[in-house]
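User: Could you write out the 3D structure of this protein bound to alpha-L-arabinofuranose? I've included everything you need below.
Assistant: Certainly. Input first, then the structure.
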Amino acid sequence: MPVTVNITPQRCIGQRSEMLYGHFIEHFHRQIYGGVYQPGHPLSDEDGFRTDVLEAMRRIKVPILRWPGGCFVSAYHWKDAVGPQRNPMFDKAWRVEDPNTFGTDEYVALCRKIGCEPYICTNAGTGTAEEMSDWVEYCNLENEGKYAKWRIANGHEQPHAVRYWSIGNENYGFWEIGAKSSEEWGRLVLEAAKMISHVDPTAELSAAALSDPAWNLNLLMHCGRHLDWISIHEYWDMMPENNAPSPYEQCMAFTDRIDHSVHEVRGMLAALKLDGKIKIAFDEWNLRSWHHPNVHTIRQGVEKSEYITPRDKNDINSTYTMADAVFTACFLNAMHRHCDIVGMANFAPILNTRGCIYSHDKGIVLRSTYHVFDLYVNHMGDTVVDLWQTETPTMDVPHKQGHIVRVNTLDMLATTFSDRPGMAVSAVNKHPDSAQEIVIPLSAPAKVTVLTLNGDSKDAYNDVDHEGVKVTRRELGVCEGELRLTLEPHSVNIIELA
Ligand code: AHR
């Protein structure tokens, strides 16, 4: 049964920020050391960065990169990782030694090389409001005070101009070092926000939020007026202890609740009349949670085989299939629909672990999710417009928790361009087996190009010696009256109407 998709470009939903295509990199496993930062490697540049990884990051136009954590940051002291003397620290979050050879200056250099905004998450676990604001002094003051002078002495005459700062990570969670009660959280964030804004009033501040009213209301009532963002995180296929990736159909069940947190936080912001002032930064998200057994638990692993080597399972490339690509496209579509209040989203992480790029000694693998970012960043428009469908096909799929979920099988998003005519439409067919015909009425003749991301099965993936997922391009020429298109099962499609 074909579905007619009526696009109404005159009904504008909003202008999306390019920061919806943001990313996150943490000092965890091989994201930094052995990942993007490999001094002396044949593929690394003079500053120690893997040039193949940098090029892949540039291709998806990373707009903002959050760093250094994540849980890592909640016992991290930034002063240990700047200047000529770097002392290794024991990373109490992930229970490994961090050489501290990659610190603030190296991170800012990375951001400059890929052309993105830096976004620093501060230590609100063992850290203090003063340590956070000292970090802002180091990065953003011209030369006043000892920290700006320290940056200059370290060879960086000009300020790093870090505009985005997050006060803490997930300090609400029992697993987080320095976890706080909602009352403690409100107080610390208030003091940190005050001190940071006394250093640099132009800094944009975020703090961790939840879809838990008690936590958020206390945070927002204490310091809503000091914040520009509140940060939410979500992973859907939870595997921290048991690395058992959900199959395709179960992953589609997760698409039913992609934006529930956004709805809940939006409601709280509106109730407090902060929805015009504070935006949501969905600054950690991924279909798949990271696998790191026996550290987010009370009983910690004793042997490294219990808690270190299992992390290599995140690197299994066959995990990242068309399920990941379809989910990622549905997430990006949902955030575009909320672009009036979601101003940033950060895929967690960009490199290795569950990232969209996988690096190995001889090169990189572009996983299925990478191609979704490549399609959206390079082909979708910046203005979200409305559409409506004559039918809403659904399917019943099994949820990981055992119940059945009815989900829409077609996920459509329409965009236009603020700088040129034309439209770009995302058309996602979530169905694992059935193709879906769509009909798009055309108000004027349009030159049509269709870019399809797919593999020969819903479980297709890319690996070092295997390309199972790729983008194919079809030029359909000029279409008049209507566009009829059949969407392959488990496929992500971008339809360009010029
Ligand atoms: O699994 C990775 C962790 O997930 C991040 O470090 C943290 O922010 C979130 O709990």
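The longest strand covers residues 3-15.
User: Perfect, thank you.
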